[in-house]
Amino acid sequence: MFLRRSRLASVLALAALIGSAQTASAFYYRYQTRESRMAVLNTDIGTSGRMRFYPTGGGSTACSGTIIADLPLSATAGVVSTAGSVDSGQTRFTFNAITAAAATASNTAVCATVTTSGGTVIINGLTVGTSGTNVILGSNVISSGTSVSVTSAYIAHG
């Protein structure tokens, strides 16, 4: 009985210690590092990349569910630019024109991935909506067979 209480006390003490741990301080990369990290995306995606839309996920949660639409990216997927202060500004990878395509399923698109032509996921968890998201659509409520077109899409590194 004493051993169980002692073990329980040790576990509770460890839990309290973990719970009170300080979070890491915010940090940033110099803009040249941010730009080079983003520029490699074109190489990773390749010349025949795809943007795929899903009904679940987004942000820190991987996309899942049936693919609603699968759109081809431009041969050069996007361009990199830095805005604001070079030290504390934001570096963006803005996708070039994305070709519209017919939806293969009906659902509300809330998450997107960027893949190579072979389906290897390069970016996962892009948020999708009609404003304030990584990928902007005219409507993210999609019906099978309708044309899906992207108004704008980007990822940011700050």
Account of the protein in words:
The protein is about 20% helix and about 40% strand. The protein has about 160 residues and is an alpha+beta fold. Strand 2 and strand 3 form a beta hairpin. About 10% of the residues have low confidence.
What would a concise description of this structure say?
The protein has 158 residues and is α+β, with helices and mostly antiparallel strands. It has helices at 2-19, 31-45, and strands spanning 50-54, 56-58, 61-64, 69-72, 78-83, 90-95, 101-102, 107-108, 111-115, 121-129, 135-137, 141-142, 147-148, 150-157.
The largest sheet has its strands arranged as 4-1-9-10-11-14-6-5
Spans of at least 5 consecutive residues whose pLDDT stays below 50 are 8-21
Q: Kindly state the number of beta strands.
A: 14
* Anisotropy-based shape: globular
- Helix percentage range: 10-25%
Reported for the largest beta sheet, the result is:
8 strands, mixed
- Rg (C-alpha, Å): 21 Å
Number of domains: 1
Kindly, what is the distance between the CA atoms of the first and last residues, rounded to a whole number of angstroms?
Answer: 54 Å
The helix/strand order is: HHEEEEEEEEEEEEEE
Number of helices: 2
Average pLDDT:
85
Could you say which structural class the secondary elements and strand pairing correspond to? alpha+beta
What fraction of the residues are assigned to beta strands by DSSP?
A: 35-45%
